[in-house]
Design brief:
Strand content: 25-35%
Distance between the termini: 93 Å
Number of helices: 7
Number of domains: 2
Oligomer: single chain
CATH topology of the largest domain: Thrombin, subunit H
Number of strands: 25
Structural class: alpha+beta
Largest sheet: 7 strands, antiparallel
CATH architecture of the largest domain: Beta Barrel
Low-confidence stretches: 82-101
Radius of gyration: 28 Å
Shape: extended
């Protein structure tokens, strides 16, 4: 019994000593602050170290990334023809002010030299583009280049001491990761919303020609277009581009272009002012199990992966290489092809004039073709 009493007294002594030290050096930790307002006494929580944030707070990521996200104002002589709303709201710029045929969106500063990534649809109808920073500075922006097929554009402003966002690794994102969407919705001012990555690799939505979207439930609204999707470290993961909405507002389904895609486009725009993609002249279709059986593909489910060719342009690169209607493309330059979106992406990544190996399946078995892609022509619907 004496032993337990000794232990108890020692613990009491230690705790009293700790209390004395805290009470002497940090008395505010031990008591609430009392305030009297109109005869009413209020208790206020004690002040704490501002560097210590609540568990789960995302303020660090927001503070790190937000200064590099800008608002983009455009002026137009004619109202935009691309502002109509349908369930797939690609063009979710903010509303124009009355009497001013213009609009606004968002952008992200990606270099100390003043390069800004945004969406092509934000600036495509603009006659003049103005960028507004979070510190209040304004500057006219020059268009370095645009890529309508991925809906990206690269701008440049001439200002010193610019905040620059850190580019992340979007290929490392996983479903369930926490992300923040930063932009200027409805022109109310910079806004940060949070959510998770809902899905990856979203394609065949009919929004862009080349689609590989990050889907998120972080609130995205008109004016966020071209803004940043960042991770919990404040690193750029994507450029917010589209929402699914029946009303034009947020419904918890938003889409962002991965920063990996944006970097590829940005490199081409900086080098040539345009994006050059490969083209082979085929009409593809996703391969279903029924089609796989029709073309005598191996019975293993893992082997049923490819794209069936339903049309071959006469005298095109594929035709000249011997590709036929009914061929099932399995890989391009040793990169597996599982659907039309992947085939389109792999072919687009080919350099025009540089021979490429394409593996196809025919009724007789595996065949390897060597073709020489040409430059992808600009689709008629985006020619200007």
């Amino acid at each position: 019994m004496k032993r337990y009493w000794l232990l108890f007294s020692q613990w009491v002594t230690v705790l009293l000593a700790a209390w004395f030290v805290v009470a002497t050096l940090k008395p505010e930790w031990l008591k609430n602050t009392r305030q009297t307002v109109g005869g009413m006494t209020l208790l206020q929580a004690p002040a704490s170290d501002p560097s210590l944030r609540p568990v789960g707070s995302l303020s660090g990521a927001a503070q790190k990334a937000s200064p590099a996200v800008v608002s983009i104002n455009i002026s137009q002589t004619q109202p935009s023809k691309s502002g109509q709303l349908d369930p797939w709201s690609r063009n979710f710029k903010g509303d124009a002010d009355e009497g001013n045929a213009g609009g606004l969106g968002s952008g992200v500063i990606v270099s100390p030299q003043g390069h800004i990534l945004t969406n092509n649809h934000v600036i495509e109808d603009g006659d003049a583009i103005e960028v507004v920073l979070t510190d209040g500075r304004r500057a006219a922006a020059k268009v370095i280049g645009t890529d309508p097929e991925s809906d990206l554009a690269l701008l440049k402003i001439e200002l010193d001491k610019l905040p620059v966002i850190v580019l992340g690794q979007s290929d490392r994102l996983q479903i369930g990761d926490v992300v923040l969407a930063i932009g200027n919705p409805f022109g109310v001012g910079q806004t940060v919303t949070s959510g998770i990555v809902s899905a990856l690799g979203r394609s065949q939505l009919g929004i862009n020609t080349f689609e590989n979207f990050i889907q998120t439930d972080a609130a995205i609204n008109p004016g966020n277009s071209g803004g940043a999707l960042v991770d919990v470290n404040g690193h750029l993961m994507g450029i917010n581009t589209a929402i699914y909405s029946r009303s034009g507002g947020n419904m918890g389904i938003g889409f962002a272009i991965p920063v990996a895609t944006a970097q590829q486009v940005m490199r081409d725009l900086l080098k040539d002012g345009k994006v050059t993609r490969g083209w082979i002249g085929v009409e593809p279709q996703d391969l279903s199990p029924e089609l796989a059986a029709t073309f005598n593909l191996p019975a293993s489910p893992s082997a049923i992966s490819g794209v069936v060719i339903t049309g071959v342009l006469k005298n095109g690169p594929a035709a000249q290489a011997g590709m036929r209607v009914g061929d099932v493309v399995l890989n391009v330059n040793a990169h597996a092809v599982g659907n039309v979106a992947e085939l389109l992406s792999q072919v687009a990544s080919l350099s025009p004039g540089v021979p490429a190996k394409v593996q196809v399946w025919r009724r007789q078995g595996m065949v390897e073709l060597t073709l020489e892609p040409t430059q992808r022509p600009v689709p008629r619907h985006i020619q200007r």
